[in-house]
Amino acid sequence: MPGPRSATSPLFRPFARLGLVSLLALTFAACKPAAPPQAPAAADRPGAADEPEAAVPRMTVILVRHGEKATDDPRDPGLSPAGEARARALAALLARAGVTHLFASEYRRTQATLAPLAGATGLAVVALPANVPQELVTALRALPAGAIAVVAAHSNTVPAIVEALGGQVRDTVESNGQRMLPDDAYDRLFIVTLAGTPATDPPQTLELRYGEASPGH
Description:
Number of strands: 8
Radius of gyration: 36 Å
Order of helices and strands: HEHEHEHEHEEEE
Number of helices: 5
Helix content: 25-40%
Distance between the termini: 126 Å
Largest sheet: 6 strands, mixed
């Protein structure tokens, strides 16, 4: 009868090699350093839903109607002495406000309303057509975060521009189905603040009066 086979016999050699390979694999796995723990995704962190959204620098738009009109040109009048005084009052009010952009319509009276402020700040007045207020709104929305823009417009465009920016204008009158500022109202100034925290901070409107008080206002 043949005796027991040794582990080095040809029959046992393949199994010995297999056992050695398995042992080496287990040893390598045991010695491999563990992967560093990863921080949970923002959505998986406890209380992540309650974290405030990152604030975005605000953009401010200040809107006025042009100053009082002169009678020098029925189609494109300049400013009367009262209108010129109002333009100077606007410059005195905003010269140190950090204004970065100036916008007016193509008409003399709006550009003259911003002329003293342009001189005080060294800014150029950008003229955009009065009958396409959406072009102005698009330009305003394209300004960089933190911008402060001043707009001189008209009684029949100021409410529409404010509302297109998400603000509100009260005490308007209606003419031919269009909401307007009263014809004798020249002292109203609207400040619309946009985009603090985008999802939770809607535009805000603040109305002030400046210069000589308009009759009945």
